[in-house]
Amino acid sequence: MKEFGLIVLAYLLGSIPTALLISKSFFGIDIREYGSGNMGATNTFRVLGPRYGTIVMVIDILKGLAATLLCFMLPFYMDNELARINMMIGLGLSAVVGHIFPIFANFKGGKGVATLFGMIVALQPVVAASCVAVFIVVLYLTRYVSLSSILAALMLPICVLWIWNENETLYRIFALLVAILVLVTHQKNIIRLIKGVESRIPILKHRDRRRNRKRS
To answer: pTM of the prediction?
Structure first.
């Protein structure tokens, strides 16, 4: 019964509509009516700029982190590693579902990548560091948040299954499901990337100007 209560609490944490709250508080708009229509960090970067996009991303990461760590509220999970991992995965996924289908925003949310990352930080910080490294490198090279998110998500099963070769079966299944989930939720982005019409976020403009001057 206590576990069910924590699952519900994790969902409510994930349901906090960060992008919607910030867009309405500072700009008087509903972020879901602009850009891709998603209530996530990527669309916030696109519509409101890097400052507010970063704020939304950090808070959404913290939602996943906090939700996953709720398991430590129950003493049983302190000393039982297998049960703890299973419970953390359940709590984290509940927060991700909350982010994608938030009860506080008419069940129309974001794609859950930042919240997933917060969950991974709680589960396995080293793997999370590898994923964020891929994200940063791809973002620096391309300025596509969507492409960075997709490749970072694909890095997760690579790390879990091959680089660190984790033995926990549920953890391996989770890593594969995360990659599949991100691919499914980014179908429209993938189509736009293939067509060459995906929006880039407005960062590194000075770098681009220098390159353009050199070419001219």
So the answer is: 0.83
Q: What are phi and psi of 206, to 5 degrees?
A: -65, -40
Annotate the chain with DSSP letters as a single string: -HHHHHHHHHHHHHT--HHHHHHHHHHSS-GGGSTTS--SHHHHHHHH-HHHHHHHHHHHHHHHHHHHGGGGGSGGGGS-HHHHHHHHHHHHHHHHHHHHS-GGGTT-----HHHHHHHHHHH-HHHHHHHHHHHHHHHHHH--HHHHHHHHHHHHHHIIIIIS----HHHHHHHHHHHHHHHHHTHHHHHHHHHT-PPPPS--HHHHHHHHHHH-
Would you say the C-alpha torsion 37, 42, 46, 51 has a positive or negative sign? Answer: positive
pLDDT in tens, the chain (216 residues): 789 999 999 999 999 999 999 999 999 999 999 988 888 888 898 889 888 999 999 999 999 999 999 999 998 888 888 888 889 999 999 999 999 999 999 999 988 889 999 999 998 898 899 998 999 999 889 988 889 989 999 999 998 888 877 777 888 888 898 899 889 988 988 999 999 998 887 665 555 555 555 555
Residues near 2 by beta carbon (within 8 Å), at least 6 away in sequence: 74
- Looking at the structure of the chain, the number of domains it has is 1
CA gap 208, 204 in Å, rounded: 7
Half-sphere exposure at residue 5, Cβ-oriented, CA atoms within 13 angstroms:
4
